[in-house]
Each structure stands twice: as structure tokens, then as C-alpha cells.
Specification:
heterodimer, A: alpha+beta, Dna Ligase, domain 1, D-amino Acid Aminotransferase, Chain A, domain 1, Rossmann fold, 3 domains, seven-stranded antiparallel sheet, elongated, B: 296 residues, seven-stranded mixed sheet, 33% helix
């Protein structure tokens, strides 16, 4: 589950991570008040940052034509105008897709003079099955680009889960980042705070990009987390009731929310052939085989190992709400589950939804003969596929991709 | 032979009295598997289906019945503890079926298991089947949730992160009259006990395994590591399939571990690693068995 920058910063700040002074708000008037206070407190520039779950905000464009989802202003009135242009409008960035995301909240924060931009992240290293701290001197850039072109500028510190992150490891990263003097202990404290946040919230990823060295009003150098990207691990949310409330349904596709209510694993894609499959691996493989034969999958949909008739019906309803869908491929390997139960569910769902699109069904496994008979005798136009390949070819042919 | 388990392996079930555990224990018994004990704290002294003794602890169950393998069906919040109980009791093999265990739990479990005698398969996996000699492979060892009847005794090893794709591959083999030595589902989570490579090495050393099907999916680099080892060391033909070529980056495709993140873990990179290692790549998931048989 992804959370917003302002939510991530609250979790981080509560664990000792320095962030720029500022507040979150949802009105232009409030933005102006926050800006006035910041300017009165000594800040000379104020940043206004759109809160959406997507990167590339600074270079994004609103559907209104207003440019920039993250902007710097010098006066409270400018902040008011900027905030009014962002709030309630849809921001399109390279990560949102053409539909963009509605901006409901803004961070209004002091924009200090930046001396240097760095990068810091905590995530799981799948090779070692341990947490890893990843840092780079190349902040403010796409870390994948840094990894591809200058991997020597990325430093990693593996954490032993039995003892946790040791202070010397945090100091070592600080030194590798080029911090000197008092900044080393600031860095060590900040890194420890980010790690503690990752651990205590069961986060999947925390990324601070950029982590900045700034010059404070007193002329001293300080380390602050200027931006924060954070996602929480879904499997651990059951033990964090306080964090479950951070979910923002406005950031999720409506059909995906609907599917999650029925315990269906659905991800919308942009093709024309919908698929309904049991099992995640088989569902991915079904998308792949549709593409292999020249079609384009409209979705990923795993109905799980023990799908009920209600779930199958809900799955059909969800698939059919996608206007791009021109045909459906059902691929069920009923290992333990009874193919006839699934076949009955499919027939009932087609009748209930009044579906007229081409439907190809590939059934295999337990009680498959009865299942095929149920479909054949349903009076519905259902095309039977003998194998995954046969079924995929037939659905692609029928949709005329 | 086979790997990990034989038809003689004595199995205990942690969580035998839950609905899920009970159902699959019945199916394993019907398959002819030697299920010798159940463990449910507080229900020690009772019997499952009037014949399988239930114990309060894994240690007691092992001592009384000689079980050497455990199947775990307990819910996610308690699964890490269940695994560690098996490890502490010194059991040879733990197969954790549970889906949805927090990653941080598994990070700690994996760290704590280092140096122990126990091998962990899973979590979030369909388990292991070593088919038996009887009709519809009856009499084999079925630990987990795989459909037993699709298997057939033979000489192909199957290893996969996905349950239903394992069944698909096994069914393709059996439909072509080709049997399996052992089929292992290693699970779809980002932190698991046993990797593709671990299983490939076992198949390579097993005289009864003559060919291998390895099924992978997007996320992580375990398939690449296995491929590198196969290139230099594997004496047996290997065919494979990677699921998720059409998956959008940054999205988790059902399995917790099936995600392309930061440009890493793509299907294209894994397929290239397979090709470079001489692994036969099935163009579609319909041709996993056929691709291997062509190589043999």
C-alpha cells in the first residue's frame, strides 16, 4: 500500500528524521496562512507540493493547463494562487498515465537553500533476505539511472535482522556520502530514524530522494529529508490498525477497489481481452499467451484457489465494466476445486450479466467432463478451448485483434 | 528415488484442526501419504478422524511418531512461530503453505534458521508431491495442497514459484505419458526457505531425475542465479517458462514477490538468462512439457 509524502514525513518525523518546516492543507486560504508563517519565520522561498501517489510531479501538467505539480513561490499571495490552481485539479505526470490524478492535498513547506542533494533508501534485499540501506551521492536523480551508469556511486549496508542497524553502519554510510564533521552524526541519526520507521511500520520501501544538505538561518549545515516516498507491506497491515487508515481510495482504480471487496486480485490493463483465471502464476501466464498470439490483455484477474459462484459472478461484473473489453478468456485449472462448480458459476454469471461478448473457456482438472457438459448444455454461446494455447488463439481470433 | 520426500516419509501437520489443514490432511491421507501426527496446541490427546493422534507441540509429535517432515497450515500471524517451533524441534523438513506472512517475519525466520538442520519449503506455496506407484500416482507423498491425481511416477523434476503453473506443467507431462520424480512449489513470496537453485541442485544429484522443468516469474533474481549455476554445472536437460512478460512494472501480480521494481526482475532478463544457460524456453505456457521432451 502506497502512502502520501505528507503521511510518510509524519511517520519519519515522529522517529527523529529531520524534515523541512511546513504543513499539509486542503485549501488555498490555509496554504496562504502556512506560507505567511513560514516567511515570517525566516524562510525566503516556499514550496507547494501536490500530494498524489506518483512521481514526476514537478514536471507534470494539470489538465487545466497549469504547469508544475511542485512549485516554489516567494510570497504568500503567490502561494495562494498556486494552491488554488492545483487543488481540485487533475495532475498528469509521466507516472500517472493520461488519466492523471486528482490533487486533494498540498504540502506547504519552507524551501531551504540546498548545498547538495543525496539519496537514501531502505528496502528488502531479496538476494540476502535482509534489509538493506542504499545510499548515493547522486540525489535528485532517478536511482535506476545512477545504478545503470555509475554504480560505484551507490553504497549499500546490509542489516543483520538479529541485531538491527548498528550505529557504525549508519556512520559508515554518512562518511561514504561525503558528510564530514557534525554532519556525520546528523546523518547517522537520520539514517537510524529512517531504518526504525521502516522496521516499525513494516514498510516495503522508504525512499528519501533527495536527502539534502541545507544551510540553516544560522549559517550551519543541516541534513533534511526534502522528499519521502513510502509503501507499506500489505501482508503486515493486519498488525498496524493505525496505519490502515492511511489508505487513500482516491488513488486506486475504482474497479480494483470493487474487486478487493470480493477478495479478487484484479489489475486493470489497457488491452481488449479480459481474462479470468485461478492462481496468480497462471493468470500472468494467461496474459502472456494472449499477447503471444497477437492480442492484448485487458486485465490481470486471479480468482484464487477456492473461488465461489459469487466471486465468479463478481469477477464477470468487474470485467464487463471495462469499456475496452471485446472478449473474455476464462482459464481454470481446477486441481482441487470442482470444474463443474466453476462451470455452473460461469453459466450463471453470463446469464445474470446478459453478456454478449465472445467467451472462450478452457477448463481442466477435477470433474472436467461434467463441467464441459454444463457449459455445453447451458444454451449459451461459449467457445471451448482444449489447451491454453487453443483457447488464447480462439479468443484473439474472435476479438479480431 | 526422489528428492526431499519419499512414499515412506512420515509427516505431521501443524494446524490439522483448522478447516484448510483438515481438508488437505484428508486429501493427503486419501492419496496414501503417511500422515502420522497433527499438532494443535490445547488439543493434545485428541485424534484427527479418530486415527491420527494430535499433540500440543511439534517436539512431542516427533518423539511419539517419528515424523520427519511438517506441513504448516496455520494463519499468517502465527506462521513464523510455527516454522520456528519445527526448527527448534530439529525436524528435517518444514513445508509452509500459509499465504500472507509479513515479510519481516520471514526475514527473522530465515536469519534464525541459518545453520539449523531444517529445510524450509515456502511459504505461500502448494507444497511437494513425490508421486506413488499406484493408480493415479496413489501411495506417494503429498505435503500441501496440490491435486494428487494429476501426477504420475516418473523421472522429471518440476520446480516452480506458482501453484497453478506447477499443476499445468505436471498435467502436460502426465497427459503425454511422462511421469515426475518430485514436484516442488517453492512459493511466491519474496523471502522463501528454498530457492530454485537449491531444488535444481537436488534434482541434479538425484539419479531418478532425468530432466527438469523450472518455472519462474517476474520479481527478484532467483531464476538468473539458478540459470548461471545450470550453465556451468547441470548435467540434465532443463526447460523453463517465465510468467509475467506482460505485467506492468511496479505492480504486484497476485504473489507478494511478483513485482518488477526499479527495472529489476523483468521476464525479458530472466528469459535471456535461461537462453544463455542453454535452458529450453517454452514460448508459451502450453508448451512447458513439450519443450523439455524435445531436449531429451
Amino acid at each position: 500500500m502506497n502512502i502520501h509524502e505528507y503521511q510518510a514525513k509524519e511517520l519519519l518525523a515522529a522517529r527523529g528524521v529531520a524534515i523541512p518546516s511546513g504543513e499539509v492543507c486542503d485549501s488555498a486560504d490555509r496554504a496562504r496562512d502556512i506560507a505567511s508563517a513560514l516567511l515570517a519565520g525566516g524562510d525566503t522561498l516556499v514550496a507547494v507540493k501536490s500530494q498524489i501517489h506518483a512521481g514526476g510531479r514537478g514536471k507534470g501538467t494539470f489538465k487545466s493547463g497549469y504547469k508544475g505539480g511542485v512549485k516554489l513561490f516567494k510570497t504568500a499571495e503567490e502561494v495562494h494562487a498556486g494552491a488554488a490552481a492545483m487543488l481540485g485539479n487533475v495532475l498528469v505526470t509521466k507516472q500517472t498515465g493520461a488519466e492523471g490524478r486528482l490533487v486533494n492535498k498540498l504540502i506547504v513547506a519552507g524551501a531551504p537553500a540546498i548545498e547538495k542533494e543525496l539519496y537514501l533508501a531502505v528496502l528488502l534485499d531479496r538476494v540476502t533476505s535482509r534489509p538493506v540501506i542504499m545510499a548515493s551521492t547522486e540525489g535528485g536523480m532517478d536511482i535506476e539511472e545512477v545504478a545503470a551508469h555509475t554504480p560505484e556511486k551507490i553504497f549499500k549496508e546490509s542489516v543483520d535482522p538479529a541485531v538491527g542497524l548498528m550505529p557504525y553502519q549508519a556512520r559508515r554510510i554518512s562518511v561514504q556520502l561525503g558528510l564530514r564533521g557534525d554532519l556525520i552524526s546528523q546523518g547517522a541519526k537520520l539514517i537510524a530514524g529512517v531504518y526504525r520507521t521502516w522496521l516499525e511500520t513494516d514498510a516495503a520501501l522508504i525512499e528519501i530522494n533527495p536527502l539534502c544538505i541545507i544551510k540553516g538561518g544560522d549559517g550551519k549545515l543541516k541534513l533534511v529529508a526534502l522528499d519521502a516516498k513510502m509503501s507499506l507491506e500489505d501482508n503486515a497491515l493486519f498488525r498496524h490498525p493505525d496505519l490502515q487508515g492511511l489508505r487513500d481510495l482516491a488513488e486506486e482504480a475504482p474497479l480494483e477497489i470493487e474487486a478487493s471487496k470480493f477478495n479478487l486480485n484484479y489489475i486493470k490493463l489497457d488491452g481488449s481481452i479480459a481474462c479470468l483465471v485461478n492462481g496468480a502464476g497462471l493468470a500472468m501466464a494467461t496474459m502472456d499467451i494472449i499477447q503471444y498470439f497477437g492480442g492484448r490483455p485487458a486485465n490481470f484477474l486471479d480468482v484464487g484457489g477456492g473461488a465461489s459462484k459469487e466471486q465468479v459472478t463478481a469477477a464477470f461484473r468487474i470485467i464487463l465494466q471495462d469499456p475496452n473489453v471485446k472478449g473474455i478468456l476464462v482459464n481454470i485449472f481446477g486441481g482441487i476445486m470442482d470444474c463443474n462448480v466453476i462451470a455452473t458459476g460461469i453459466a450463471a454469471a453470463v446469464k445474470e450479466t446478459g453478456m454478449k461478448l465472445p467467451l472462450v473457456v478452457r477448463l481442466e482438472g477435477n470433474n472436467v467432463v461434467a463441467g464441459k457438459k454444463t457449459l455445453a448444455e447451458s444454451g449459451l454461446t461459449i467457445i471451448s478451448g482444449d489447451s491454453m494455447a487453443d483457447a488464447a488463439k480462439k479468443v484473439v481470433q474472435d476479438v479480431g485483434a | 528415488m526422489s528428492i526431499l520426500v519419499t512414499s515412506q516419509t512420515r509427516v505431521l501437520v501443524q494446524g490439522i484442526t483448522g478447516a484448510f489443514g483438515a481438508r488437505h490432511t484428508q486429501l493427503s491421507l486419501a492419496y496414501g501419504t503417511q500422515i502420522v501426527a497433527g499438532v494443535t496446541p490445547g488439543k493434545g490427546g485428541q485424534f484427527f478422524e479418530e486415527k491420527i493422534p494430535i499433540f500440543d507441540t511439534v517436539e512431542q509429535a516427533m518423539k511419539e511418531t517419528g515424523a520427519t517432515a511438517s506441513a504448516i497450515f496455520v494463519p499468517p500471524p502465527f506462521a513464523a512461530d510455527a516454522i520456528m517451533e519445527g526448527v527448534a524441534a530439529g525436524i528435517d523438513l518444514v513445508v509452509c503453505i500459509t499465504e500472507g506472512i509479513p515479510v519481516s517475519d520471514m526475514v527473522r525466520v530465515k536469519s534464525a534458521m541459518a545453520g539449523s538442520r531444517t529445510r524450509l519449503i515456502g511459504p505461500n506455496c502448494p507444497g511437494i508431491v513425490t508421486p506413488g506407484e499406484g493408480k493415479d500416482s496413489h501411495g506417494g507423498c503429498r505435503i500441501g495442497i496440490s491435486p494428487g491425481y494429476i501426477h504420475k511416477k516418473g523421472n522429471i523434476g518440476v520446480v516452480s514459484r506458482s501453484g497453478t503453473l506447477t499443476y499445468e506443467a505436471v498435467w502436460q507431462l502426465t497427459s503425454l505419458g511422462v511421469g515426475q520424480s518430485t514436484c516442488v512449489g517453492i512459493g511466491g513470496d519474496p523471502v522463501n526457505g528454498t530457492s530454485h537453485l537449491d531444488v535444481i541442485k537436488m534434482f541434479n544429484d538425484d539419479p531418478e531425475t532425468h530432466g527438469i522443468i523450472m518455472i519462474g516469474e517476474i520479481g527478484g533474481s532467483a531464476e538468473e542465479e539458478a540459470a548461471e549455476w545450470i550453465r556451468a554445472n547441470c548435467r540434465k536437460p532443463v526447460a523453463g517458462f517465465i510468467a509475467g512478460a506482460t505485467a506492468p512494472p511496479g505492480r504486484r501480480m497476485g504473489h507478494a514477490g511478483a513485482i518488477v521494481s526499479g527495472g529489476k526482475g523483468t521476464a525479458a532478463a530472466k528469459i535471456e538468462a535461461f537462453r544463455a544457460a542453454g535452458i529450453g524456453v517454452a514460448e508459451t505456457p502450453s508448451e512447458m512439457a513439450a519443450t523439455l521432451l524435445k531436449m531429451m
